[in-house]
Amino acid sequence: MAAYGALVSVMHIVDQVQTHPFPPISIHQKQAESLTEAVSSLQHFLEGYSPRGGYTDEEDFWESRIAEAAYDAEDVIESYIVDRIRARSEIDVEQHTSSADFYQGLQMVIANMNSIKIEIKEKMVLQDQNHSIKSARSAAAGSSRSTSTPQNATMIGFDDVLLRMLDKVAGGEPDLQILPIVGMGGIGKTTLARNIFSSPLVQEHFDVRAWTTISHEYNSREILRQVLDQVMEEKWEDLSEDDLGLHLYQSLIGRRYFVVMDDMWNIEAWDRVRRFFPDNRNGSRIVVTTRLSNLASLFNYANGLEMQFLDEDASWDLFSNTVFGKESCPLELEVIGKKIVRGCRGLPLSIAVIGGLLSKSNRTKENWEVIEKDLSSVVNLEGNESCLQVLYMSYNNLPVHLKPCFLYMGSYGEDEVIPISRLIPVLVAEGFLKPINGKGLEVVAEEYVEELVDRNLLIVEKRNYCGKLKSFKLHDLLRDLCLREAQKLKFLCVLGEQSIPQGINSQRRILSTLSDHPTPLLPSLESASLVRSFITTGECEKSLLHNFRLLRLSCFGDDEDIVDKLVNLRLLNLAKLPENPSLFSFLWNLQTLYLHCYDEDHHVFDIWKMPQLRHVIISHSGRRPGEYRLPDPLSDEEDMVLENLQTLHEVGSLKFSEEVLKRIPNVVKMKLYYFDTTGEEDDYLLNDLCSLHKLETLRIHCSYHGELVREVSFPRSLKKLTLRRTCLPWEDMTKIGLLPFLQALKLEKNAFGGSEWETFEGQFSNLKSLSIHACYLECWITDNAHFPRLEHLVLSYLSYLGEIPSSIGDIPTLQSIEVMQCTDSVVDSAERIKEEQQELGNENLRIILQ
């Protein structure tokens, strides 16, 4: 809920002011204590409070009152901070807020919060109505994670449907056929298509497969690019639509292909791309999923499928699997459980969501009866509103600290794949992550998102080598819920083609879906002086710079006024550094900097006086990386330890002197580039890297000349290591093999050189993923015991390697060997390993030859 997130944000601001080495303002100690006590009391109330009933269009009274009080506290404190900094930087001649005004304003805020506390005590103690519902929901929200994880892709109740579709996909006439799957949202169209796509029959029958999601606002160029990326297994970013289509057409000629076009909303999407899919008369197939029956009828409807609701038996099977996994439903819950299932009316999405809710709650008959009574009051509504009500129950039963995180997902586009690496800094900057002792805010954010995945509110798109979430999506029905609830709670204001939203001048977050902002809208938008996040993919008018004075998250481009005027920024995107680097000192609370290297100049970027920095991420945008460098910090009292700094990406020629090391003790991820051909390896002191005891991810990239990192020692904490053009001898691999937590190792472009690599027992004890690309290697001597946990092996562009050691196939955990552009003997040895494993009955090992 917005109120809880706002209270957490207030606590962050107070803490940041009190712990900052050079705070822009000071808060009277007694005021800070009174404010903290009031905020904590309201947080405690909200943690046990849940709005009564199902979804309504009306904002909850207590949430509204508390949110407004928290917003007032934010405005008073941050306005005073901005005034003081701007006055100090001579941006404003006169200071808007005096110290006395600030003190008085904060007192009023505290008095208002205390007044709300008294009202709550007087009124809520007497209101015991629906107590059982609140207790059940509180239990559901506060329970620990279930050991059974619902399987989104499981086709329960649709086995015969799957078999019929597989028969149509792999059989029938040789002509190219379009096979539509039609049904309402949440009925399982995409799940069925996924099972068809991943079935062994389809994998073996077709030469190539591709999947593309269309969505309501289709982009024909993006459709072609997605398909071509999978067909050619390359990235195609800069080609026009026609060029992409031509490449796709040429790549599909003569090949039997299978393509899924998921969630098509209009025939125009197909009409724009159909000419690029040749009819090879070899049984190629395209499956289209859509909610619209009239659209499906435009294809060869006889070959398609209309999804039906699950019957009671299949619904119960899906529900049981979601709630209990492989366990059986206790007899005392079976009767009430079947009532709940009947209330879902055979809609798989509703069953999965309600099942996910109950898997997190106490499994008692009383709790389930409460859910069943509330469920029956909402699912019996007609039309799509019934699904909204069911989805709202899942949202309403979230722990209160997860609700702001879930609501924020509505700011992303329909069917947008959300990389968690980009989301986490945003969640931290927004300020609604509640700190947990011993855990960084980034870890807290990742746990929040994972819990939303566990509750079937987010769809996993991709996980990494060790199972950590990399990207996810939000179902469109759940996104609709997010947007409705977020706008109702004034958590997020959405600007679209409709009229100007009421109360825009008091909004905290504004999402603009417009490519540009029409003249009538600008005055209203400029009046939103309290906005903290302005999210847009279109152009942003410079006039907003002067009015969004409290902005925390910037989406603006290469304008020095950003740094000059928006001194409250926590997350900043810049296309280039300002000519006056000292301006960064006014960004008192900057946490994340994305710097895109478009210009020709080399820059030195000084971060050593920015104590709140957490992430510095530089992208070279097609130019040579490593052009932004950090200066050596001066050993004087003005320099400080960057306790919060976790990420340094694409920094050039960083020297790990004693002064540098002591200022970045908690860095977790680093990408380093060394291109200085005039320097000596000792200049960079990479042998002292081992003192960074929290470093988990490290990439070192050298110039063609190499030999700049000959002496390098790695910290024991490393989990992922990538080396490129470091030209190390294979003998040095011994110290890498002894890293106890290393899970992923990538060796790229002459990372190592020499004819022979021999491993020894006791090395690579936790390594799961090994990739060797374009390294000089003739002979690899190893044993399966040397890689006891290896799961994935990738060998590419190895022009001299004789063969893959046969012992590799005996690694019990190995799942795949991928070979690309290697010698014939390597390919032959990979095929031989597969044959040997098949003879031993191991059908799980995949050999991928490209």
UniProtKB/TrEMBL annotation:
Disease resistance protein winged helix domain segment(s): 414-482
Cellular localization per UniProt: Cytoplasm
An individual GO BP term: plant-type hypersensitive response
Cellular-component GO terms for this entry: cytoplasm
Residue ranges of every copy of the NB-ARC domain listed in the record: 173-328
Gene3D superfamilies: 1.20.5.4130, Helical domain of apoptotic protease-activating factors, P-loop containing nucleotide triphosphate hydrolases, Ribonuclease Inhibitor, Winged helix-like DNA-binding domain superfamily/Winged helix DNA-binding domain
Main localisation: cytoplasm
GO terms assigned for molecular function: ATP binding
Keywords: ATP-binding, Cytoplasm, Hypersensitive response, Leucine-rich repeat, Nucleotide-binding, Plant defense, Repeat
Purpose: Confers resistance to late blight (Phytophthora infestans) races carrying the avirulence gene Avr1. Resistance proteins guard the plant against pathogens that contain an appropriate avirulence protein via an indirect interaction with this avirulence protein. That triggers a defense system including the hypersensitive response, which restricts the pathogen growth.
Entry-linked PANTHER family: AAA+ ATPASE DOMAIN-CONTAINING PROTEIN, DISEASE RESISTANCE PROTEIN RP
Family named by the database record: Belongs to the disease resistance NB-LRR family.
Protein name according to UniProt: Late blight resistance protein R1B-16 isoform X1
UniProt organism field: Salvia divinorum (Maria pastora)
